Fold this protein.
Amino acid sequence: MNFPNDLKYTKDHEWIKIEGETATVGITDFAQGELGEIVYVEIETEGETLDKEEVFGTIEAVKTVSDLFMPVSGEIIEFNSSLESNPETVNSNPYESGWLVKIKVADVNELNDLLSVEEYKSHIGA
């Protein structure tokens, strides 16, 4: 499994990449592996401001549907629209072209609550 060192992680198996006031969010390699073949990504919260740990969408695999949780509070400023026609990109490239949303971070202090790569690996027993 792949866990880039330059990302932060959540206990809900999402990754977050911070670039100034903007954060890109996706699910981890571990999460996509556990879900299996992803067939649909539904995110209808673009333009909304949500609190940390609030549900911002769902990801559907062949056998299950999982909620997606905000890693930090903020406004969802962009959805990866290429996932509408190619949701399997989340399986094949979860950290690059398989990203889910971009967020304008509301409270940078919440970033301190995220897990480092070492903490996330420990969380999943890797």
Observations:
- The longest helix spans residues 117-124.
